[in-house]
Amino acid sequence: MSLRPPRVAFFTDSFHEVNGVGLTSRQLDAFARRREYPFFSCHAGETTQNTTDGAVETFELKRGLCAFPVEADLYVDPLLNRYYRGVRQALEAFQPDLIHITGPNDISLLGALLARNLRVPMTASWHTNVHEFAAWRLQKSLRLLPKGPVDSVARNVEKGILWGCGKLYGAARHCFAPNPELVAMLQQRTGKGVDVMHRGVEIELYHPAKRDRDDDVFELGYVGRISAEKNVRFLKTLEEALLARGRKKIRITVVGHGNEQPWLEQNLETGAFPGVLKGEALARAYANFDLFVFPSFTDTYGNVVNEAMSSGVPCVVTNGGGPKYLIEDGKTGVAARNEDHFIDSVAALIDDPDRHARMREAARAHAVENSWDRVFERLYDRYAEIAGTAVAQTV
Questions:
Q1: Cα–Cα separations (whole angstroms), residue 63 to 17, 45, 288, 317, 375
Q2: Has residue 30 got a pLDDT over 60?
Q3: Whose CB among 226, 249, 311, 338 lies 3.0–4.6 Å from 286's, allowing a Cys bridge?
Q4: Does position 393 have pLDDT exceeding 50, yes or no?
Q5: Contacts 24+ apart (CB under 8 A), 111-118
Q6: Angle between helices 303-310 and 279-288 (to 10 degrees)
Q7: Strand 194-196 to strand 174-177: parallel, antiparallel, or no bridges (unpaired)?
Q8: pLDDT of residue 2
Q9: Quick one: DSSP state of residue 20?
Q10: How far apart (Å, rounded) are the C-alpha atoms in residues 351 and 344?
Q11: DSSP assignment letter at 6
């Protein structure tokens, strides 16, 4: 069997954007560069350009005037297939063993079309519960209408999107999902093999030593999109409950951007909003948190939870979605059963400094067991099996 690594073409909607898919995409690109693996990275950019740097070829596509926003910095271009001929020509020259797409987005749909037409094996990874996000957004935008009909429409939209996702992922030879619940869902809908695709953390960047705050305020931190599907308005409910219970020395720091930010700025009494942070600034923000609070029910994974734990910060999350699989309940954080349990868990950690200190140490110890290199080594092993090549281990 050949010891060459598989030639992978990766199509993703998020690369430069500040979200979990973008982070994973950048880290995979960086891994391929470090290992000098042949890698074709297709994603959106400010200009359309095709460049090569060592073993990595990048094809960036500029979205056009018809593109519409789905997030503050993320767009979908319904006419993206105008680039089909140019990307196909570059892809044929690259000669991929496998194409990897990241979901029902414009770039990935282009990749899926190319995989079919070029008869290249395709894998698909699930990153975002777009069906749930769409339902949340629809319910929010129609909140002034009668609740019953709106809920009915939202359920039908969610079912329709999920059906479409099943068809897209069913066209893949193999699938990846970020948690066991989604693995089971994709297996049931596609009949294909599905593996858990973990995500790593930069344990040297996100480190407790970056803490430079010494006041006596107990800081609750949130990092991510400040949007409805993240359930961020619960932060106001949490604040009100803690203040009513006499926990006055608190601050809720919300890092990120999104359309719910103006509402939180107006309603959070103790809120701080530093905006989007990256690199060392983000690492310091994490390390300065005393507790990470993540009220989302819709996240499939939760990179931010790993980053918080790597920074020595325990996490209180909901029992919905993927973040509950990242923590050790009661040791590195709490998976709250409901809103009351969430509030009680935060209050209990404020009141018990010794337990809080133990959880800080346990969170860091748990996080350092993960690294991006190990995550992608396992991914490339699966790539090799699917494409029929073998990954050289002497790198």
A1: 14, 8, 38, 35, 31
A2: yes
A3: 311
A4: no
A5: 111/9, 111/11, 111/42, 112/11, 112/168, 112/171, 113/81, 113/84, 114/9, 114/84, 114/87, 114/88, 115/171, 116/171, 117/88, 118/88, 118/91, 118/92
A6: 70
A7: parallel
A8: 47
A9: H
A10: 11
A11: P
9 and 102 Cβ atoms separated by less than 8 Å = no
Burial string for 106-142 (b: 16+ CB within 10 Å, else e) reads: bbbbbbbebbeeeebbbbbbbbbbbbbbbbbbbbeee
φ, ψ for residue 366 (rounded to 5)?
A: -70, -40
Domains of the chain: 8-200+371-387 (3.40.50.2000), 208-367 (3.40.50.2000)
**φ, ψ at 295 (rounded to 5°):** -85, 5
**Structure tokens given for 278:** 């990256």
In this prediction the pTM is: 0.75
Interatomic CA distance for residues 386 and 366, integer angstroms = 31
Q: Burial of 233 by CB count in 10 Å (0-12 exposed, 13-18 middle, 19+ buried)?
A: middle
What is the mean predicted confidence (pLDDT) over 292-301? 91
Determine the pLDDT at residue 341. Answer: 98
Rounded to an integer, the average pLDDT of 285-306 is 93
